[in-house]
């Protein structure tokens, strides 16, 4: 691999790292373009209709010779001429055209995949040529860098499936409590969406009628809370103490409440917090510095607090990626 990095300077380092990972987990550093780059694209996007089990239009794309031979519509490709190749003509048709490939209801080719297919055909559509011998330009290197190796793609799909299963499990575990609490707080509490287990709550219609004791009633759903708006409510540090269980919380609005630096100490333990509004509260320079370890924090609203320019500067030094808003 080291020798390849030295001798093939036309390929970017990012491309080499992707290709070294391989579509099967063990691709050679200088891969055969057809079998290790193009064929996997056809396998994922085309073989369901043009493979061993099904041959739409009597055309198979899972074998090089059969791909070139084509089907009822003639040759599958013309060596060196992508624009005259049947597979490219079909790919380039409008999505709503009945002859577009893949069909509209199937997983479509990505732009970088289309670019690689055309480049391979224009380069001669060789079955055996290796990548370096085809002298890929910058645009092809860019397209190659977007290839996700099969093993990595499988892990991504498994992770997504696992996340979906976990979300469904969380939703199921909270469904009863959400239904019960919605009777007490109509229109204030709900799931984030129909497919997630995240819970959102806004006290916008309750305001001064909502205090610490009311917040305590949300304890059963606090572990699933992702967004909590308590603006202008009668919530104090006592009520804010229960936020320690809101490990999924991303958005928290406590503007014009009775919270102080003590509440910030609890808030600083929330691992996923991205947005925090403390406008019109009694927090100080010392309090906001407790947030210094919250690298995920992207926005912090602090106008009309006891925080001054020195406090802002000190926190910005700790959280350079956080936007601190001090109002007009």
From TrEMBL:
It comes from the Bacteria. Residues 46-105 form the Cytochrome C Planctomycete-type domain. InterPro entries: Cyt_c-like_dom_sf, Cyt_c_Planctomycete-type, Leu-rich_rpt, LRR_dom_sf. Pfam families: LRR_6, PSCyt1. Residues 154-173 are annotated as: Disordered. This is Cytochrome C Planctomycete-type domain-containing protein. The keyword Transport does not apply. Residues 1-28 form the signal peptide. The keyword Lipoprotein does not apply. Keywords: Signal.
